[in-house]
Amino acid sequence: MSDSELRALISLLDDPDDNVFDEIKNKLISYGDNVIPHLEDAWENSFDHLLQDRIEDIIHELQFTAIKNELKAWNTSENKNLLNGATIIAKYQYPDLDADKITEYVTQVKQDVWLELNENLTALEKIRVLNRIIFDIHGFYGNTKNINSPQNSYINNVIETKKGNPITLGIIYLAICQQLNIPLYGVDVPGHFILAYAEQKVGVLFYLNVFNRGTVFGREDIDKFLDQLKKERDEKYYQPCDNLAIIKRLIQHLIFTYDNLGYLDKKEELEELYNLLD
Q: Which of 19, 88, 204, 214 pairs as cysteine with 198 (C-beta 3.0–4.6 A)?
């Protein structure tokens, strides 16, 4: 379809007949993401609120479909790259974000850490280097004042503001360690998200609370935390989880935050994303 034909079709979106609108909408959606620039241009040049609202709905549906397709592809990929998964989820709120900027920034932090590492460092000494670079030099910290804000769960926003929740801070920390082959993994503890330093032959050496600037602690502290929550001491709460579990946990937290805020449309869409991973 030519640009002029596409513009003519878009101009008919203000038709008061819902059946006509649905037919035009479905036709536009069938063309995929390529029509978004044309829709955005029409929105900017219109003063008709009905037309603008309908354009916004179509753009959102196109973008949401694109996110679902990306998430499906990520879920079937062999390595399920953690940073890529978090970036796809961030596109739900920020569809035009620059994924390369996120990757480049994390790579830069990794480089800063790498410059201070050497083969003679113990596991704890490596963690001290990581904590100093990530929390002191780059200034990341846990958003204790507004921990349940949805913005804490979008990786691009966390990188920009330097404040996040345990999951997003953990994802950044893990993404850096994965590039450096440091054996750090996520642990899906109820009501919290922590990291574990686990070597192949000896298992978990210690745990980290990235929400508290990478504080190191032991298994007995998880015991106490589970006791406070009146949760059974299931072994899965002490062992590393995979990247899929972390991204599912990220989506779950967003569902929880939007539900609390009363944004039921966002809650339902995120539940749809979550179900794609089951």
A: 204
